[in-house]
Amino acid sequence: MATTIRQRDGVAILEPSGKIMGSSVSELRDAITSQIDASEAPRILINFERVTMMDSSGLGTLMGAHVAATRKKGRIGVIHVGKNIKNLIVRSRLVSIFEHFDGEDSAIAGLSSES
Q1: Structure confidence by residue, pLDDT tens digits, 34-86
Q2: What's this model's pTM, rounded to 2 decimal places?
Q3: Structural domain containing residue 47
Q4: Contact yes or no for 82/115 (Cβ under 8 A)
């Protein structure tokens, strides 16, 4: 798994690709943590378009990121969540904690606004 990180209008956009499972989870965790640590009020968008699979350890990483960002008055949004990942999030009853957006433009606008 590889994660590309870019910035747009104050929002860090993370684009992981491949499978978020096993040892690759730590790479995603490190990428998210670095973005949270670098900002007083982190705004992070995770694009799941190129993620083929995620297991419970990947979900745990997302949960930890949500908690860490919330402590700093930050927000995490997601786009292009595939069916398999969405099912995992729904089954674990965590679907409501992530901000879902239809695309990058709406996510940037939504995450940039105060909530």
Answers
A1: 999 999 999 999 999 999 999 989 999 999 999 999 999 999 999 999 888 88
A2: 0.92
A3: 2-112
A4: no
